Amino acid sequence: MAKVRKHALIKGFVQGVWFRATTQEQALAHQVTGWVKNTSDGNVEAVFEGEPEDVERVLQWCHQGPAGAIVQDVEVETEEYKGEFATFSIKRSYW
Predict the structure, then answer these.
(1) Could you state, in chain order, the average pLDDT of each consecutive group of 10 residues for the chain (95 residues)?
(2) Which of these is catalytic: 5, 20, 43, 57?
(3) Catalytic entry in 38, 43, 57, 92
(4) Residues 6 or more apart whose Cβ sits within 8 Å of residue 30
């Protein structure tokens, strides 16, 4: 099966609750590559690449997030798979 790429915007109370770190843990546990970062408007943005079922598992986890998070919405766009990542990283945001 062909690998997929999903771009997600996770909205709600998702900063300051270890969302990025636990997203990275989930992605690595499911062999999903990509990145996650905070956005200037208080949300979290991520790109996931991998096998469809593995990416879907991580996206489903994003609907709940870690303890303390209050996820209000997860917007997901399908993009062309690029295979550009060796691992899953946390991007630092500078705004």
Answers:
(1) 96 96 98 97 97 98 97 98 97 78
(2) 20
(3) 38
(4) 50, 54, 55, 57, 58
Q: Does domain 4-90 have CATH number 3.30.70.100?
A: yes
HEC profile of the chain: CCCEEEEEEEEEECCCCCHHHHHHHHHHHCCCEEEEEECCCCCEEEEEEECHHHHHHHHHHHCCCCCCCEEEEEEEEEECCCCCCCCEEECCCCC
Known catalytic residue at 92: no
User: Looking at residue 1, what is its pLDDT?
Assistant: 77
- Residue 43 known to be catalytic: no
Domain residue ranges of the chain, discontinuous segments joined by +: 4-90
